[in-house]
Amino acid sequence: MGQNETQRHFELRNLDKDMEQASAEAFRVSPKEHARRLRSENRFLLLFLALVIGVSCLALGVF
Q: Taking the alpha carbons of 57, 58, 61, 63 in that order, is the dihedral positive or negative?
């Protein structure tokens, strides 16, 4: 596609505005959703830490 065709395509479809709106909506997160995501990430990290500590203890012969 040539440069003129691309520019015309953007002008006809208002893709610039659509991209700005989509980007703004993608970054908009509700506080409840954010808190829920943080809790699940914290649970995963604690489980992973416990697993690493357990494997390390087994490898060192602590148990």
A: positive
